[in-house]
Every structure is written in C-alpha cells, then in structure tokens.
Amino acid sequence: MSEGASAAGRIPALDFLRGIAVMGILVANLPAFALPEAAYFAPHAWGGTSTADIAAWFATYVLVEGKMRGLFSLLFGASMLLVVERAQASGRNAARVHYRRMAWLFAIGCLHLYGLWWGDILAHYALCGAIAYAFVRLPVRGLIGVAVALILWESAQGAWLHAAILDAQAHPDATGRALVTAMEGSFGRPPAQHLAAEIAAYRGSYAQIFAWRWTVSAAPPTFLPILGPETLATMLLGMAGLKSGFLTGAWSPARYRRWAAVTLGIAMPVYVATGLHTIRGGFALADVVFGAVSVAAPMRNLAVVGYAALGICALRPGGWLTARIAAAGRAAFSSYLATTLVMTTIFYGYGLGLFGAVPRAALYLLVPPAWAAMLAWSQPWLAAYRYGPVEWLWRSLARWRVEKMRR
Fold first, then answer.
1. Residue among 214, 237, 220 at smallest CA distance from 135
2. Which pTM was predicted?
3. Contacts (Cβ under 8 Å, ≥6 apart) of 249
C-alpha cells in the first residue's frame, strides 16, 4: 500500500484533491457549455462586456482556467501509476490492465465528445495516458526531468504561435491572413455569420447539434501535438508526486506551505499581470493567445502544484466537508459526465435553449447549486455502493466482467 493510503486502500489526499478538481472544472467549463467556443477565451466574441462580465472572465482566468484541468491531469497520472503498481503487486499483467482502461476511456470520451459536448477531455487523457505508461518505471527525478522538457517544448510552441500572429498582423500575406482567421475562430472574434450559425445550431434539435459537432469538432488525435506535451508532462508530475509522497499527504505541513508559497507566488502575479494586459488591450488576438497559450504551460503547472499543496494543507481527516469533497472525488467521473448532461440540457435546444442568451457573469449563479448537488449525492451513494455509476461501468468494461456494485 502506498504511503498515506487508508486501510481500505484509498488515499484520502487523492480523493480530496480530485473532489476539488471536479468542482473547480465546472467553473472553468461553464462558458464552454453556454457560449460560442471563441467566447471561452475572449469575452468580446460573445457573452457580454459589462464590468461584471469582464471581472468574471478575469477571476476565472487567474484562479481557474486551465488549472483545474491541470489538477485533473496531475491526479490522473498519480491514479494511473497506482493502478499499475497494484496490478503488478497482484500478479496481473500491468500493461494489459492499463491499456484496457485507456481503450475504454477513449471510447467513453468519444461518445462524450460527439454525443454530448465539444469540450471533452477524456479521449485526450486516454491517448496521453497510453503514452505515459512508457515512463512508469522512471524515478522521481527522471519523471520531473521529462516533464520539464515537455513543458519547455510546449512553451516554445506557444511563443512561436504568438510571434507568428504578430508577424502575420504586421505583414498580412495570404499565409498570415489564413493563420489570423483560423486563430480568430478560437481566440478572437469569429465572423458574425459563423457565430450566428453556431448559436442557431446549439439552439436547434439534437440532430442539428450533433451535425454541428461532427463537422466542427477536431478528432482527439489532432490535439496530441498541441495539448499533448503539457498534458503528458502534468501526468508525469502526478506520478512523481505519488512516488515522492507529495500527493499522498506524507510531507510535513510546513513543507506543503513552502511549496504553495513559492509556486503560487511565481505563477499568480504573472496571471494577474497578463490578464490585466489583455483587458487593457481590448482582448486583441495576440494578447489573448499570449495569455491562454504562450505563458500558460509553465505558469499553469506551477499553479497546479501550488493548488495541490494548498489542498493537502486544507485536508481535515474526519471533517464533514472533507468527507463530502473526498466522496465527490471518488465519484468524479460520474459527476463530470452528469455536469455535461445537466448543463447541456439547460443551454441546448433540446432543453431550455438558452445557448448564447445568458451573460457570462450570470452563468456563475449555477455554481452553488451544482456544487451542492455534487456534495449531496456522492457520499450517500458511496455508503451503499462501492463505486460511482460511471466508475463502475469503466471498471467493468476494462475487466470485461460485471464488478460487484453493492457493499
């Protein structure tokens, strides 16, 4: 059993951090559920530019955007290594166990992507997780070294993209114009006709929404060269965190506080400065890309490590809130997909049809009831059942047998 694990084989710190992540990722994903895709990064694309809307963008950019996904990636790497170690300890073929899990995760992710919501991350995790298995035997320093190299690679790509946009705007030849047009579609102000078509599609029937997603959504493998290096790096940091005891709660409180102070002390001022610069520049394309892509990889990973350290400092074994959040973490897969079902029903045409109709700031009124639901259902469910419903399905599919559900 890994250091810091409970008698039942659970690691309380992992469950608690996963609960924080699944609650936080709802905050990050709300604009992606309710507004056109480009509005996720650029409020001027859609969703309102009032003081409240800009303040909502700034708060989520500094505190949440990318960081909850990064925390999930960190914990995914740790959990993946834990499964591999336990398979090896029980005499099973660890590679077979791992790749079955990744294959079914990829399938579930594709169903989520095309069937429900364009912002799926599960299929991408499955592909990165398949690559990450090659590194499970590395020691802590080796894992950190590879992770740092990947983060530097991702940072170089982001710097190149920012420079290419500035050059294309200064010297608008055909290639440059094509690049700027493509980037405006995700980070700037898409043409009015594209926004109108996207809003009309998502306010339409399920068939119309599916057809739009099928046409517009990129296939998961296409994200590997773009997002893959950083996602893989964060997973490797999660493995290092498990092996070093960082993610099991084995360090002293003072050490966690020091790590949180250093990492967040570096990352957060950069995020604040970048966010303010983007606002002052009127959300110019180059500024948005710089903040969302170029500066993101190194600062985001520092923030993720800092958030993990803060979360472990806040862990109170036996406390009511800790128990509820940890239960939400144990059922995070189920809550993640349930959030998609609920939010798409609110905003898409087959539900209330509110897509593009709610200002950005007002979206966050949905957070308290959604958090309350996550905290309310998971603990009673897990008192009666061994796994969350989707966790049980994934486990049963990966093992190709019906797992015992009731306690």
1. 237
2. 0.94
3. 4, 11, 12, 13, 312, 315
The answer, yes or no, to whether residue 2 has pLDDT greater than 60, is no
Residue 182 burial (10 A CB sphere; 0-12, 13-18, 19+): exposed
CA angle 80, 70, 64 (to 5 degrees): 145
One DSSP character per residue, 222-241 reads GGHHHHHHHHHHHHHHHHHH
Give dist(CA 64, CA 283) in Å, integer: 19
- Grouping H, G, I as helix, E, B as strand and the rest as coil, residue 71 is helix
Residue 100 neighbours by CB distance under 10 Å: 15
**In contact, 398 and 87? CB cutoff 8 Å:** no
Over residues 349-373, mean pLDDT = 97
Nearest to residue 271, comparing CAs of 291, 245, 290, 257?
A: 291
Quick check: 147 and 237 in contact, CB under 8 A?
A: yes
Residue with tokens 């166990």: 97
Distance CA 60, CA 5 (A): 33
CA-nearest of 38, 128, 124 to 80 is 128
Tokens representing 34 are: 């309710």
